[in-house]
Task: structure prediction
Amino acid sequence: MKKRHDIIVIGGGHAGIEAAWAAASLGADVALITMSWESVGRMSCNPAIGGLGKGQIVREIDALGGLMGLATDRAGIQFRMLNRSKGPAVWAPRAQADRDLYPLAVQELLSTARSLDIVEGTVEEIIATPHLDSEKSTDESAVSTSRRIKGVLLTDGRELLAECVIVTTGTFLAGLMHCGLEQTEGGRVGEPGAKGLSKCFESLGIELGRLKTGTPPRIHRDTIDYDVCDAQPGDEYPTPFSALTGAILQPQVQCHVTWTNNDVHDLIRSNLHRAPMYSGQIQSNGPRYCPSIEDKVVRFADKSKHQVFLEPEGYENERVYCNGVSTSLPEDVQTAFIREVKGLENARILQHGYAVEYDYVPTHQTKLSLESKLVGGLFLAGQINGTSGYEEAAGQGLVAGVNAARLLGNQKPLILGRDEAYIGVMIDDLITRPPTEPYRMFTSRAEYRLLLRADNADERLTPLGRSLGLVQDDRWRVFENRRKATLAVTELCSATGIRASLSRPETSVKDVAEVISRGSNRTFCIDAIENVLTAAKYAGYIKRQAKQIERFRKLESFLIPNKLDYHSMANLRLEARERLGAVSPKTLGQASRISGINPADITVLWVHIASLKKQKQSPQHMSPEVLSSPK
Ligand SMILES: Cc1cc2nc3c(=O)[nH]c(=O)nc-3n(C[C@H](O)[C@H](O)[C@H](O)COP(=O)(O)OP(=O)(O)OC[C@H]3O[C@@H](n4cnc5c(N)ncnc54)[C@H](O)[C@@H]3O)c2cc1C
Result:
């Protein structure tokens, strides 16, 4: 085993995988430390990838050369394009994956990475040295970095050294699982937690918070009465996640839907005192938008039923995931309420639901590059940053991997804009408005969602990925071919006169295909026609959004000087001084998104900075405010 690497990634979950892959793709010598090789790529919760807002992230990861889309295409057992009845701007790809095949697909892909060592072990400690020289950091605010990363210490005493360490430990930091009144230490069912690291973060001066998430029971597939449930088939023509996948050829399975009822709700209500969330046993916040069934029964008391999606966990796997009834009620209550659900009267539970509480690192301590503000060279990605979900974790992992590699080369960090990618929206949200409950992506979080579509992720990001060095020749060829095909369709639409009809809602891919094939005696791929049609249908909205983006970019390009002393800005409200001081925004745009900051605060800030700049150029033009602000 080599003792020194460029970059160490702690954790082989969805963030760790993308971080290691991205950094290795950029030529860094990477060690991925995982508790076990076979757990790399394991799915803690539902083996499903994508969905609203999340499917777009997977496409973005793919466009930047990441792994998640490829692995899902190999291991998917049911593919659906959600929201197909609505406009393409909100279509979102989703796939149910095979729980056993997905990690294998990830491991196979990872084993092709250049310069990636897999080290089995548990990290106990992050080693950092006190450090005053701040020149090597991802941005100018490095002056706040008082320490620098040196390496890690494993529980068995091994020490590994590196220039950068990326922590992606998910729900494992001081993980505590709850099922009724029973509590077990661990990161997820059957796996130990990581205790040492929490203490180590505190000793480095990094503040920790605590969050919780939960999972539903899994039942045996042969104990479900499918005849009384609604079948939910996959798409007839499954759409792959990755631009590199030609077609999905594996057979697709069916999912089913059933409903809870008043008997289920009564049973849950009468046992709330045994639910850790209600007995006071769990104090930390859970995901508001992904509530447990006990939460739903309390918060939506007027509802007489809730959906339960019955989702198979694999071709061979006997377990069916009961999506919608996440719970940490005691086992006997779970068994009783599940059997009150239509179609599940004889259900046999193979794994009971549980909740897990874990430590996370609140993101006011992290930069937009995902590097810690407190320890230079230490990056954080995934659930440890307060997010929930595989896709959110993977998107951050990719960015952290890229930025760790760029730090080694003294290059500026990759910071994706809110107008470029959902990944950019997510990271900006995390850093600018640090979450206090698990953060998950929704389309509504993105103000430019008409531009951030799943179908144009490659147009938005593959050229960037290529320039960063993430996109290899094979992916670039596919991208260029797609671009050429789209251009050819656009030209033919003009030549055949159908262009004017493209923006009409009733014009379909089939209509366009017929006209342009007649006009050229050629056939065209549906994908290229769909591209042209979507662009035409949204042209008006996109033009309007482009104007908003122009305004947004102006604010984004207005840089805020480092070490601005907000507390001494007398014209700024006290609350604004505190909030700005806590986040240290890099631009006026970022400052405007901090919660509690209003347009008047931004004007004060703008005037102040403009005066500072003017003062730098000619000292005689100092405004009274600048004169009253100590430097
Ligand atoms: C019970 C439960 C319920 C969930 N419910 C949902 C849900 O409803 N919806 C949703 O979107 N997401 C849910 N998730 C979250 C989803 O699983 C995570 O968001 C996602 O897996 C996070 O990815 P990650 O890479 O950050 O961490 P993980 O996938 O948790 O991976 C962490 C990795 O780090 C390794 N590791 C940890 N500590 C160490 C150490 N000290 N040394 C070496 N290796 C270490 C672990 O072995 C693991 O491989 C749930 C997770 C759990 C556990």
In short: The chain has a mean pLDDT of 90. Residues 473-496 form the longest helix (24 residues). The domain at 218-357 is CATH 2.40.30.260 (Elongation Factor Tu (Ef-tu); domain 3).
